[in-house]
Design brief:
3 helices; about 40% strand; 14 strands; disordered N terminus; SH3 type barrels; Porin
Length: about 350
């Protein structure tokens, strides 16, 4: 039960991790968070949001592009109004200046003083308006429009200094992927009616190889091979010691898998996978005359989760956890008969975890 919960907990932890996102601020005050795939002056910005959906925002709708490392994009950024120079303490005080036609500061919440009553306006021939007539008020000229890209700044949004963007969006994933992994493989369940897995083998050192072909940036199909090397379990070790021999065990799993990456364009991505293949385990001894045993069977279900750090280069590193559900249906007892069917079978598991070294992540 615990082995089943471990990959589920790891998947939940990976799903909740925030790898860091780029942010595209829109002219209407909204924003998009994800990974910027392309920034083009004519087409705008293309961003992949969490979940894999790709959106393209036209240049006219972009207010600012802010990358996860703090740099700014080249689209939609407008400079703030210049700051006034510091006053000179020795200069006489200047008369109060007229309010600017437009300012980025929020309007004051203080109430304005009551306006002085306007004098009666002159009539058509310069005469005063008759008592009780509605005074004529000159029309107020419209304010100058705000600079482009500045008027719709979300309230409270800080003004960032403008600098040339140094961010490089990750390239589109390559069509192929190669990886080698190191870790451990812990057995569970029973090998046959006579031996549990822990009686036959200890936790094994794991070396894995895999290669995949991407059908799309998110979906990959590939082949895997795992080699595990460990010591003899309790029952097998007691048998070998009685014969004054030293025993060890090895396992091989070979098959194919399908894998889905959630944010393949991002420098980091979580993924899930499913696979199936062959499962073989054998024991060996330094005494050639000692009988050994080997099992063969099928691993019908292999569930994997992982988290890759792919960056912008051609190499990457990742972490993985795998739970394989399998059954041995053949055994070779080294009696000259080769592999024969087991009269009854038992289910077993392999829980694997470790680190992956990736080429073309």
């Amino acid at each position: 039960m615990m082995l089943t919960l471990v990959p589920v907990a790891l998947a939940a932890l990976i799903a909740g991790a925030d790898p860091g996102f780029d942010t595209v601020f829109l002219q209407n005050g909204g924003r998009l968070r994800g990974t910027v795939v392309e920034e083009d002056p004519s087409r705008g910005v293309t961003i992949q949001i969490p979940g894999g959906q790709v959106r393209t925002v036209p240049p006219a709708e972009i207010f600012r592009i802010e990358y996860r490392d703090g740099t700014l994009g080249t689209l939609g950024v407008q400079p703030p109004p210049p700051r006034p120079a510091a006053p000179d303490a020795t200069a006489p005080p200047a008369p109060p200046a007229q309010a600017a036609p437009w300012t980025q500061e929020a309007p004051s919440t203080q109430a304005a003083p009551p306006a002085e009553p306007a004098p009666p306006a002159a009539g058509p021939e310069g005469a005063a308006e008759p008592p009780g007539a509605e005074p004529r008020v000159a029309p107020v000229p419209p304010r100058a429009p705000p600079p482009p890209g500045w008027s719709t700044r979300p309230p409270g949004e800080p003004v960032r200094p403008i600098g040339r963007a140094r961010h490089l969006a990750p390239a589109r994933p390559q069509a192929i992927m190669l990886a080698a992994s190191l870790g451990f493989a812990a057995p569970g369940g029973s090998a046959d009616p006579d031996f549990t897995m822990s009686e036959f083998t200890t936790t094994q050192f794991l070396l894995g190889l895999e290669g995949g072909l991407r059908l799309s940036p998110e979906l990959m199909l590939g082949l895997y091979m795992d080699l595990g090397i460990g010591g003899a379990g309790d029952a097998l070790d007691a048998f070998c010691q009685d014969a004054f021999a030293t025993c060890s065990t090895a396992s091989v799993r070979l098959g194919f898998f399908a894998r889905y990456a959630f944010t393949p364009y991002a420098p980091q991505t979580a993924w899930i996978g499913i696979g199936t293949g062959l499962d073989v385990m054998a024991s060996g001894s330094d005494d050639a005359s000692l009988d050994t045993r080997a099992y063969g069977g099928w691993e019908p279900l292999r569930l994997s989760v992982g988290y890759d750090l792919r960056g912008t280069g051609q190499v990457g590193i990742g972490f993985f956890a795998t739970l394989g559900l399998a059954r041995y249906d053949e055994v070779d007892r080294a009696d000259g008969n080769g592999f024969v069917d087991l009269p009854s079978t038992r289910s077993h598991t392999w829980f694997q975890a470790g680190v992956r070294f990736i080429l073309f992540p």
